[in-house]
Amino acid sequence: MEILNARDEKVQIEYPANWEYKVIAFSKNLITNAIKDIIDDRDHTLTHSHNSKNGKYISMNLDILVHNEDDRNIIFESLKKHKDIKMVL
């Protein structure tokens, strides 16, 4: 699949590929539970990224092996639609 980078150059993604999603919610527990709901037992790494200035939100990095473009997009859309997730980047 080809996507554009910051300089509008096409970048080729070769699958399978490690992919990182930044997931934002009110708490680490909400993020952890949402990820369990969506990816179940797939191997992944979840690491802290940032807390908002007022402490209302937390962002975490989800690193996971995606097998193809559909897999990557399904995970993204599922995270985005989850009731406990506020934003996915």
Assign the structural class, choosing from mainly alpha, mainly beta, alpha/beta, alpha+beta, or little secondary structure.
alpha+beta
Question: H/E order of the elements?
Answer: EEEHEEHE
Oligomer: single chain
Shape: globular
DSSP strand tally: 6
Lateral strand order in the biggest sheet:
4-5-3-6
Overall pLDDT metric: 92
Number of H- or I-type helical stretches: 2
Portion in strands: 35-45%
The parts where pLDDT drops under 50 for at least 5 residues are: none
The radius of gyration over CA amounts to 14 Å
Strand count, sense and barrel status of the largest sheet are: 4 strands, antiparallel
What's the arrangement of secondary structure elements?
Blueprint (H helix, E strand, L loop, with lengths): L1 E3 L5 E3 L4 E9 L2 H12 L4 E8 L6 E9 L2 H13 L3 E4 L1
Antiparallel strand pairs: 1-2, 3-5, 3-6, 4-5
Properties at a glance:
2 helices, single chain, two-stranded antiparallel sheet, 89 residues, alpha+beta, four-stranded antiparallel β-sheet
Structure overview:
- By secondary structure, the protein is an alpha+beta fold.
- The protein has 2 helices and 6 strands; from the N terminus they run βββαββαβ.
- It is globular.
- The two termini are 19 Å apart.
- The mean pLDDT is 92.
Concise overview:
The protein has 2 helices and 6 strands; from the N terminus they run βββαββαβ. The protein has 89 residues and is α+β, with helices and mostly antiparallel strands. The strands form 2 sheets. Strands 4-5-3-6 form a 4-stranded antiparallel β-sheet, with helices on one face. The chain has a two-stranded antiparallel sheet with strand order 1-2.
